[in-house]
Amino acid sequence: MTKAIWMEIQCEFLSRLRMPRYSVPVLAFPLMFYLFFGVILRNGFLGGVAPAVHVMCTMASMGVMFAPLMGLAAGISAERGLGWMEVKRASPMPPIGWFLAKFCGGMAFSAIIIAALFAMADTLGGVRMPAGQWAALGGALIAGSIPFCVLGFVLGYLVTASGAPSMINLVAMPMAFCSGLWVPVQFLPHVIRNIAGFLPAYHVAELSLALAGGAGHGSIASHVQALAGLTMAFFVAARMVWRRDQGRVHAG
Amino acid sequence: MVIAELRNVTKRFGPVTALAGIDLEIARGQLLALLGPNGAGKTTAVRLLLGLSTPDSGAARVFGRDPRERAARTRIGAMLQVGRVPETLRVSEHIRLFSSYYPKPLAFEATIALTGLEGLERRLFGNLSGGQKQRVLFALAVCGNPDILVLDEPTVGLDVDSRRALWRHIRAFVARGGSVLLTTHYLEEADALADRIVVLNHGRVAAAGTSSEVRQRAAARKIRCITALEEPEIVAMAERVSVRRDGLFTEIVATDTDHVLRRLLACDPGARDLEITSAGLEEAFLAITETKR
Fold first, then answer.
1. Does A87 contact B54 at a Cβ distance shorter than 8 Å?
2. Phi, psi at residue B88, to the nearest 5°?
3. Residues B191 and B248 in one domain
4. Domain residue ranges in chain A
5. Which of A15, A91, A249 is closest, CB to CB, to B101?
6. In terms of residue numbers, what domain contains B38?
């Protein structure tokens, strides 16, 4: 059973990694944007931290949002739509292994993006932080991918395989903008800043900025609380769509 | 000994009755072919036996258990019609993953040998030919060393060579003592592989018997002519005869058309526009169904 779970996680990760239409954009975009805005345009200060640090945090937040959303939502909708899920369900596969594989896959890609961004920030961006602070920041960001894993799971049951990429972008792009990942929150209109408080990406970004030494909006505790609350809400939705799908498959 | 069965199973999808109270039994060591045209209810029967759906009435049992139980699933290997399989995993990774689901899987090398995948272990699934892909799906069904294999149209879309290769591997599984339920709409396939054939049509069992019994019955021909004789008179001429009116014409499907023809001409010398053709599988099934009534 443990072996099955471990194999499931490995296979999920490897199959994603070998899929260039997934791995390339998910890994390359945050790094590319960091190069543009964190390294090349790094003059001036934003919210009390250097752009090299600010953009590192916002791009890491974008990475931990897109990787699990794309991975889980597109992956699950494809498996459901094309009959592969049926093959797995007919086998004695432990469902827990399948869940864990999906979540670990999303978190693993998040971790790779974070590590690559940190390496870039250290070498090209000239960002200096004590080891403990790097670790806390990295840990918080990886944990920050959890709500997006759950959200991706939900979307995977709501969208069709062919519609998945555009639907995911339709959710993720506005969320990235409203959360201040592309334009710092203080430059956004008031209306959008009010919406931001309900978006997980906003709280992940603010949390990481606070941990990186920036003067963020709101306390660390408030962001952790908000993220925990949002994750719980997504879990409830995930349970609902999972149940509904089980019922449907049995009926159909 | 019966190891898997459907007992008086009915399954409806909205207004469509996919299965109308069928009984199906698979014995240990048996290769049972479920034969029928598209829409006969074959896939529905398979899905019920695999616990992928539940019957509206009646019961599906595998080793005396509900097939949704893990204890039942670890003894079943399934090959379904699947639109797409993750293409960026290697053959070996797919097999090792599915092997890990079972308590006593075959050794990896044994699975490869049993399914003729030697030399393809490191290939990505997406880079395989159609026949090779089907063999990998077959390997995923046998790798757990199951007692029964359920194969839903395993050779559909394959060329003759690939089909025969897969037949060989299916026979090898049976030779090792395994049982198989296989669905197909090729009479030839059922004939080549099965100990016992159950013919399904419109969700009912139209006929059941050994391969040669069914083949003989299904080797029907069709007489088309204009005759003054009434349906009951023609049906009484021989066993396994079905009659249909088509405007002026009468269509008679029978296995012993020579005999029927002689009787027909004896009783109605005025019969004309005679035409004899070999009946399609569906019409042959119809002939079988008529005898059961």
1. no
2. -100, 20
3. no
4. 2-251
5. A91
6. 2-216
